[in-house]
Design goal:
This protein has 136 residues and is mainly beta. Helix content is 10%, strand content 29%. The strands form two sheets. The protein has a six-stranded antiparallel sheet with strand order 3-4-8-7-6-5, with no helix packed on it.
């Protein structure tokens, strides 16, 4: 297994040192940022979205769309093996949580109400992402 594909693990103390308090709350404690407030909600630049915690490429900007939900939304990940899905019954709802398969960071949720060709909406917290533009 290459270093890029190896599981990334840190202690909770190390994660707190690496992340801002808001990033830690969302990525490590499964929090959610307020709708329409995230850094990448309205970003329309071309490039890729990486996991904030480990730097793994998760989404391509060409798969991003405005879902009107208040969070960055994508109709597919860059690779199906980079996300893990988990049954989530928190907050009185039944949803599918998505996490980074490399470091287990909470990203958001996936819903079956997205556009074609997948019909999926990967609804992701901006605080879980880092963006690298094509011109960077």
């Amino acid at each position: 297994m290459s270093e890029k594909n190896q599981k990334v693990t840190h202690t909770e103390s190390e994660w707190r040192e690496r992340l801002t308090p808001e990033e830690y709350r969302i990525c490590r404690q499964k929090g959610t940022e307020r709708a329409f407030t995230g850094e990448y909600y309205s970003n329309q630049q071309s490039g890729v979205y990486l996991c904030r915690c480990c730097g793994e490429t998760l989404f391509n900007a060409e798969h991003k769309y405005d879902s009107g939900s208040g969070w960055p939304s994508f109709w597919q990940p860059s690779s199906n093996d980079m996300l893990q899905e988990h049954h989530d019954q928190s907050h009185g709802m039944v949803r599918i949580e998505i996490t980074c398969s490399r470091c287990d960071a909470h990203l958001g949720h996936v819903f079956p109400d997205g556009p074609q060709p997948t019909g999926l909406r990967y609804c992701v917290n901006s605080a879980s992402l880092a963006f690298v533009g094509d011109d960077s």
